[in-house]
């Protein structure tokens, strides 16, 4: 395996490890800190820029490996259909099979590397959106709980005000009844004593 395909394999392995870390069942706080670091760190931004350039080269390798695989398949088919199959020995067939295998391996290696890069990018954004949604949900839940407590306190205060109003009305009725009873007794006393009714209470 040449050096650029070896580097492509290392890149594919690092993508697989990153994907396993992203989907691992980490605690929410750890996951939030990890993704916040990955999204805000300048070092991560530089690494992401370098990876974008690397994926461009991997794309070029994918196209080249795909063309080479098609060319080798055409050569093998041409050799078989050209009447040379009976003259080929086992070494030629082994050479053709090895070339075909290496071409297919390079196509799969570069293709999976590009495909996993798309999956990894999409997974990162989905998990980041999920973390932001969970944060918003926690804030809304806290605000709802606070509003519920405020509504409960306001309801208790309203009930207390209503009770005080009822007590006030009761006291007013008792005061009016006592004033009426006082006036009645005053009138009766004045009639019995013959005094004028100037002491009558007025509400």
UniProtKB/TrEMBL annotation:
Organism per entry: Lactarius akahatsu
Record-annotated Bap31/Bap29 cytoplasmic coiled-coil domain positions: 158-200
Protein name: Endoplasmic reticulum transmembrane protein
Assigned GO CC terms: endoplasmic reticulum membrane
A biological process from GO: intracellular protein transport
Transmembrane segments: 7-28, 48-66, 107-127
Keyword Protein transport assigned: yes
Record-annotated BAP29/BAP31 transmembrane domain positions: 1-139
Location (main, coarse): endoplasmic reticulum
Topological type in the membrane: Multi-pass membrane protein
